[in-house]
Amino acid sequence: MKVVSLTSEHFREQIDHGITLVNFCKSGSECEQQLVITEELADEVKHQATIVKIDIEQETELAMEYGVKRVPTFMLFKNGYQVETLMGPQSKDVLRQTIIRHAVLGDTC
């Protein structure tokens, strides 16, 4: 499964249902390395979550709304609610465990 680039136009629609891991990033940064990890992870968790990326240079208002000050910043949303924030580079295991932890909680936040 591929990590999808998301814009503010479709952001709310995406995060409102199920679990979505959002990678706030920008070109030419540590985000390029993280993209490889999130691409692999997207395949592994495709039944539990969707993984998307947002380029903060193109979506500055969205980055400001969510207080993104450092890239990469990962935010996990469950049924429209922000339930986790991880700043800086993350391992695939940390991201997977974060997704799984919220997936097994059912529909509660």
UniProtKB/TrEMBL annotation:
SUPFAM superfamilies: Thioredoxin-like. Keywords: Disulfide bond, Redox-active center. Transmembrane segments: none annotated. Gene3D superfamilies: Glutaredoxin. The keyword Cytoplasm does not apply. Residues 3-99 form the Thioredoxin domain. CDD domains: TRX_family (cd02947). Belongs to the thioredoxin family. PANTHER family: GEO12009P1. This is Thioredoxin. It comes from Paenibacillus artemisiicola.
